[in-house]
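User: I would dearly like some help making sense of a protein record. I have put the entry right below:
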Amino acid sequence: MEKFEELEDRIKKIEEEIEQIDRLDNDTFELTQKLEKVTSLLVEVVENNSIDKNDIDFIVLKFDIDPKQYHEIPMLVSKKEKEYRKNGTFPTLKQFHQEVLETLSISELGNNELLPIEVTKNLLEKYKKTDEYDYFAVCEKILST
């Protein structure tokens, strides 16, 4: 019986250590993402001598938005691009902005002023110019509404 209790204690300790490792892993991921955003902004400031307060990277840092949610944005743009190519449908700028708010969980704060629509416009402009994927058409259509 004593060995059984000893084994249970060891299992419990291992589970606690695994939880701590998971927490540290998540913290490391978040810090890495923030560091990448700060580096990106710093390079932009140095190269352009300024930064737009409506830049999505600045907003993510300023309001401490969860990096995991931020990484949903490219998937949202990709989804809209696929819908546009398949059906020819695309959201209005206002609808897309609302989806960005929901993706970043900003709508939960009840303060949509936190993310002005200009941030979404700048985001679409940035994706419109990306070379990695062909988002130009859908971004252009959304911006035209």
Observations:
- The radius of gyration is 21 Å.
- The mean pLDDT is 85.
